[in-house]
From TrEMBL:
CC per GO annotation: large ribosomal subunit
CDD domains linked: KOW_RPL26
PANTHER family linked to this entry: 60S RIBOSOMAL PROTEIN L26 FAMILY MEMBER
Domain of life where this protein originates: Eukaryota
Alphabetical list of SMART domains matching this protein: KOW
Protein source organism: Agrocybe chaxingu
GO biological process: translation
GO molecular function: RNA binding; structural constituent of ribosome
Protein name (Swiss-Prot/TrEMBL): KOW domain-containing protein
Keywords, in A-Z order: Ribonucleoprotein, Ribosomal protein
Domain KOW: 78-105
Family stated for the protein in its record: Belongs to the universal ribosomal protein uL24 family.
InterPro entries documented for this protein: KOW (IPR005824), Rib_uL2_dom2 (IPR014722), Ribosomal_uL24_CS (IPR005825), Ribosomal_uL24_euk/arc (IPR005756), Ribosomal_uL24_KOW (IPR041988), Translation_prot_SH3-like_sf (IPR008991)
Length: 167
């Protein structure tokens, strides 16, 4: 089996590597699809925590309940004020209420009646991450309906394409 020697200069030490011709090819499973997107953990975290409000909106999405999922043919939506949610994870699991505030700066939502009593007698809302809730009632307006229609069209087009392939 022919091998070719390749000299590598690193840290002022010379190393001779034996590289097989088969090793020169990059396997498809290790290739990146987009060179502009980094795989670095630290860059990903920086991008996440420095994200602008428009991107935080999309990241702060919640799953829809089974009934809504069946009705709108959509799995998740960005949360908004006046949606009704059920908390499914954490200390407040099982509680239901209306979203009173979407606090994008802190990555949390405030749910009606999920609050803490402070020592001075005042109440303070407790932040819940949107991934820990399920949307039970959607506040629909024209923009939200357009988003649902667009998502539904994508799914129905994919399903019809699958059906055509079977024929």
């Amino acid at each position: 089996m022919p091998t070719c020697g390749k000299t590598l200069q690193a840290n002022h030490h010379r190393k001779t590597l034996l590289i097989e011709p088969a090793d020169l090819k990059t396997p498809a499973d290790k290739m990146k699809f987009n060179a502009d997107v980094s795989s670095s953990r630290r860059k990903s975290r920086k991008a996440h925590f420095d994200a602008p409000s428009s991107i935080r909106r999309k990241i702060m999405s919640s799953a829809l309940s089974k009934e809504l999922r069946a009705k709108y043919n959509c799995r998740s939506l960005p949360v908004r004020k006046d949606d009704e949610v059920r908390i499914v994870r954490g200390k407040y699991k099982g509680r239901e209420g209306k979203i009173t505030q979407v606090y994008r700066k802190k990555w949390v939502i405030h749910v009606d009646r999920v609050q803490r009593d402070k020592s001075n007698g005042a109440t303070s809302p407790i932040g819940i991450h949107p991934s820990n809730v399920v949307i039970t009632t959607i506040k629909l307006d024209t923009d939200r309906r357009a988003i649902l229609d667009r998502k539904d069209r994508k799914k129905s087009a994919k399903v019809s394409a699958d059906v055509e392939m079977v024929d």
